[in-house]
Each structure stands twice: as C-alpha cells, then as structure tokens.
C-alpha cells in the first residue's frame, strides 16, 4: 500500500470561494493591498487548466515555471528581466544575438557552356612537289591510206597462144596523207598517285584571328550550401571602460571638465601652455565648458563603478571627480585626498544611451585652483568608469 502524500493539496473551488468571501467582506482592503500566498517549504503556487495540466508554477525558492511554453506558438521577440526587481520586458538591442555561423561550402560547378563557333581557317600551306608522270595512253588507230591511179589497160594481144603473163606494172606513187584526222584514241588509264610531297615550311605570316566564339550559356547555380551551425549565444561581456589620465590644467579655476580617452589634456586643442596660469577663459579651449570636453557614450549601458587615483605633485592636491551627462551631474562621484597615489571608488548606477554626451568634472579645494605659486600643478589624475 503506497504511503499517503503529506504534500498540501489545494482544492481550486474551495480556494476561490474563500477568496470571494474575503473580497466581499473586505472590499476596501482588497482594493488597497496585494493578495499574498505563502507556500510550504519545498512547495509552490500552481495554476492548472480544466484538464489538470500544470500551466504556471512559482516555487518557494522564487523559481518561476511555465510548462506550456514549449508547445505554444513560436514568436520572434526575446524577453529579459531586470536583475534588481525581476520585472519582465523586451530585451535591449543586440542582446541574445549569437555569432554568425560559418559560411556553407561552395555549390557544385555548373555544366560547361556551349562551345563558340570555329574560327576562320588560316591560309593554306605551299603546294607540294608534282607527282610522277603516269604511263602513256594506247596509240590511236592508223588513218586510211590513199589509193594510186590505175594504170592504162595494155593493148589486147593477138589471139593466139596465150602469151606469158606480162610483167607486173610498177606500183603507183603513194597517195598524199589524209587531211582528215583519225579518231581520238581511248583515254589512257589513270597513272598511279605519286608520293605525297614533303610538307611545306610553316608560313611566317600568321593566319587571321578566328572570330571570338559566343559566350557559352551560364551553367545553373549550384545548390546553396548548408546553413552553418548557430554560434553560441554571446555572454554578458565584460562591459565598457571609459578612462583618462588627465594632466592638471594651468588655471586658477577650482574646477574643469576632462574628456575621455585622449591620454591627458596637454595635447591637441587642450594645450594649457597658453592658459597663462589665470582663468580657464584665457586658454585656447576653455576647460570650464562641458561642450569643449564631452563626447558621445556610443553605447547603451549602466555604470557599475568609478575608480580614481591621485598622481598630482608639487604639491599633491585633493580632487573630486564626477561623471557629467548632457551637461549635468549624474551623482557618480569620487573624492581622493592630498596624498600621493591616493585612490577612491564609487558604485553609483547611471544609465547611458549612445546619444548621451559624457565628460568628467574635476574639482579641487586647493587655494589657487590647479596652480601653486604661479606654476601649474604637476602630475595626473587617472580616472576610469566601468559600464555594462
């Protein structure tokens, strides 16, 4: 037999009935105060659906769960919370973006385009040597011979004994050659092909350039490479550090503004050699004017700490350094005494936006301001402000 659970159970209809009665009896109080539920150690406050599925839970440890979110419709906005209060809200720009994934592999090369037409044929080489003469054709038939004139008939001899046969008359002269040519003899058999003559020397004149073939049709685009893995989510980061090492201005003023990040105020427009150890208005750039030393914050962050170290000398003077935003004090301030290398730290939180102009305001209680005996206070004041 299973042991009975000792975990407290809550019947929703009983709880709602009790809450309704409390509201009816104490309406003015309900309108003026929060409803508070105390859960047992290790337990929590749970909201369930009519089917019994857990929809929302708040543990005694402060942990908040919403089990139904994994099956809810996906959205594209991130939700962040404020550390001090736990308030939920949209995240600031740039938070939650991971590093860009690696580039996918190059797609396969498309097939080769159709070849362009053949260029014009170059000039023909020199003619090879003539082949050997073929055999002579058969002799044509002999033309007809001319017949000579018949000689005169001899006188008839007396009939008597037959005389001996008379001698044969001389042959008549040969007739003149026929003026009619004999028929054409039959065409002789084609002679055997002579050997190929040696190749003529290469032409020293190059043939004309063939016409450029047309551009082949571009192959189809290769398939898109697979998407690189999503980079790991960026961490909170180490924040931003605004800092400066400010040389004391050679003025009799008891306060001056110091710009961030220029490694001191003695160079460029902040040349204090022309201040003549008088008021800041005598300087090339008046250090008592906020706009002459301010610069944009260029980030959305909240200050966490200011640190100042006093390296002034001859003599060492007390200093108070304050962060100014848009021409006004932010309350983030730190004071160091007139002791060499004295330090101070302040942790006042100040919200900054990229469009806010910021500068450090440096003041002293030293008689003569930032001068002593007609000479400038030597040394620097190193200041750093951390913002995240």
Quick gist of this model?
Helix content is 5%, strand content 23%. With 388 residues, it is mostly beta strands.
Topology:
Blueprint: H1 12-25, H2 27-32, E1 44-48, E2 54-59, E3 64-65, E4 79-81, E5 88-90, E6 240-247, E7 255-258, E8 295-296, E9 301-313, E10 319-325, E11 328-336, E12 343-346, E13 351-352, E14 357-363, E15 371-372, E16 375-376, E17 378-387
Antiparallel strand pairs: 1-2, 2-3, 4-5, 6-17, 7-14, 8-14, 9-12, 9-13, 9-17, 10-11, 10-14, 15-16
CATH architecture of the domain at 240-387: Sandwich
The CATH topology of the domain at 240-387 is given as: Jelly Rolls
Report the principal-axis shape. Answer: elongated
Radius of gyration over alpha carbons?
Answer: 61 Å
Provide the CATH top-level class of the domain at 240-387: Mainly Beta
* Number of distinct helices: 2
Largest sheet composition? 5 strands, antiparallel
Share in β-strands = 15-25%
Q: What does this entry look like structurally?
A:
By secondary structure, the protein is mainly beta. It is 5% helix and 23% strand. Among the domains are: 9-65, no CATH class; 240-387, Jelly Rolls, CATH 2.60.120. The strands form five sheets. Strands 6, 9, 12, 13 and 17 form a five-stranded antiparallel beta sheet that branches. Strands 7, 8, 10, 11 and 14 form a five-stranded antiparallel beta sheet that branches. A hairpin with a 5-residue loop joins strand 1 (44-48) and strand 2 (54-59). The radius of gyration is 61 Å and the shape is elongated. It starts with 11 loop residues before the first helix and ends with a strand.
